[in-house]
User: Fold these one by one.
Assistant:
Number 1:
Amino acid sequence: MARKKSFSNTWWGQQWIDVLESFGWANRLQRGRRYACNGSVLELNIEKGKIIARVQGSRHTPYKVTIKVSKLKKKQWQKVLKYLSTKALYAAKLLSGDMPEDIADMFLEVGVHLLPRNDNELDTKCSCPDFAVPCKHIAAVHYLIAEELDKDPFLVFKLRGMEKDEVLDHLLKYGDKKSKTQNNVDISSTDAGYPESLFPTVAPLSLCEISSTALPISLDNFWKAKPLPELNLPQAPSIHAVAFTNTENTFWDKNFPMAQIMQGIYRGSGKM
């Protein structure tokens, strides 16, 4: 018995099929599965918000299938990308070429849907005489879209109107703007919104503060590996990572343990 081919081996491919089935298309999609499996989809081109395909049917001339996906508006993309630029973990994953499976949840947090919510966001046409939507030729193309999403989940951005490179460029731009804004803030001033108590003035250590009492240094003692006399060095001031405990407007994720990490670094530096 021939093994049934799967067109949704990843979360993204399955999500595309699940969304379409939620429109009440489950039975009609199955009609096109055989066309998708036997190679009847001769050509598939994915553009911004648009899929164009040629599908071989019962006639000699292949049918032309066009599927338009509603693009997100410019303001929606700006809102999403600005928000993602504040989420260090998500931004880092995207910039490294890794699509987080819960990225759709990040879109929803700013009121934007990454995947289509209803069939009104899909405008499908086929040159075949079947007026059903979706016809089996359109259904076959949908399975191939799921297969392409398996290969490259970033295509979901393209279907919504923005190329992968554009998304990454905007993330870098918004991240750079935030970084410059932070770098231009004088953290030692109360005008920056931080109390002076967070940044106490610490006088630099001076060699003059070290006891000038002559040390009983002896070459004989040195070569006999006898212990050296203790130096009367001033105690380093106690430093804490207080500045890293406020995670309201930070570039790192609020769940990232930055304060604990910096506290460990500060404690360790005092032992050097």
Number 2:
Amino acid sequence: MSLSLYAATIPSYRQILGAVSGLLHKAQAFCAEKGIEAPEIIQARLASDMLPFAYQVKSTAVHSLGAIEGVRRGVFSPDMTPPPDTFAALEGRVAAALSALETIEPSEVESFVGRDMRFEAGNRRLEFAAEDFLLSFSVPNFYFHAATAYDILRWKGVQIGKRDFMGRMRLKG
């Protein structure tokens, strides 16, 4: 059995975005329980030269739905808009990406195979086939940002574990 481009991307995007949504709920509950102001988590960074939690969450939407939208246009550029600055706004961004991903048909994603795709950031240009852009650029970025958001919450003391990161697995039956 061959694996389709759709199967290699969209279901995993949805799985991990669902998990990120759950992480946001746990972070918000943690803040309420501990009397912590939300910006302490939302603006938290693992290192001074890394971007904050809010950026990491935003980037899970950018490298899932945003990547698909980029392939549709034939070009993807980094989203330079400021990340949402409240838990509700972060949840809204994730929910919107999840909702849009649920409407994508497998046939559309399969039609991307072999299509020219370009990454543009400032003067930097990288040329890809669409499937290579998704699988070698956006999917790794997607997981990097999801894992970094998870790591920030663990570092701040939110009681989460691997199952919280993995989300709802796609079990047989």
